[in-house]
Design a protein that fits this description.
The chain has one helix at residues 2-22, and strands at 32-37, 39-41, 51-56, 67-74, 78-80, 90-94, 97-104, 108-115, 120-126, 130-132, 138-149, 155-168. By secondary structure, the protein is mostly beta strands.
Length: 184
């Protein structure tokens, strides 16, 4: 009985050790951060909006050998001025990436990023001009849904983030400039 327990524990320890050696650690690089910059717009056509950036918590967004699907959906009242037809709005930092526009319509676009080289560290979505529907108020957001697949097309992780890319407003806005002073 004691011998069986010891064998079981030894087998489990050996299995954990082997798996930790065989599995690439970047495969577990799931949590990502979505940051953004936004502009003040009006409810009219052809409005210039901000950008959204996806970065990994451990500085890996797309591990080598993995595929990432990214779907970008605009909030109610916003549409692409021109529906995306290429991957031009998505720029990847690092990695050897093959990017493909899978599908797009008036309010969303889906991209596929295949990494055949080193780990990729960030994706920047520089949004083209948007048409903002009359009567739209508040924030214009982009919901970014990410789904990572390993080399066998198994889902490794998925995450959804929302980025504020514009604020609909009118009137005068005051920009405050902050200055950092160094101690001498």
């Amino acid at each position: 009985m004691i011998r069986t327990k010891k064998k079981s524990i030894a087998m489990i320890v050996t299995l954990v050790f082997l798996l930790s050696i065989m599995m690439p650690m970047a495969a577990f690089a799931a949590p990502v951060k979505v940051s953004s910059a936004f502009s003040i717009v009006t409810d009219a056509a052809n409005q210039t909006v901000g950008w959204a950036r996806v970065t990994g918590d451990d500085e890996v967004v797309i591990a080598a050998g993995y595929t990432l699907y990214a779907t970008v959906e605009l909030s109610n009242g916003a549409e692409w001025n021109t529906v995306p037809t290429t991957t031009a709005m998505a720029t990847v930092t690092g990695g050897t990436i093959t990017a493909t526009l899978v599908a797009a319509n008036d309010t969303s676009a889906q991209f596929k990023f295949v990494n055949t080289g080193v780990d990729a560290t960030a994706i920047l979505f520089a949004f083209p001009s948007l048409d903002i529907a009359s009567g739209t108020t508040g924030d214009v957001t982009a919901t970014i849904t990410l789904q990572a697949l390993d080399g066998l097309n198994n889902q490794v992780w998925s995450q959804v983030g929302t980025a504020k890319i514009a604020a609909v407003g009118a009137g005068d806005f005051i920009l405050l400039r902050h200055q950092i002073l160094e101690a001498r």
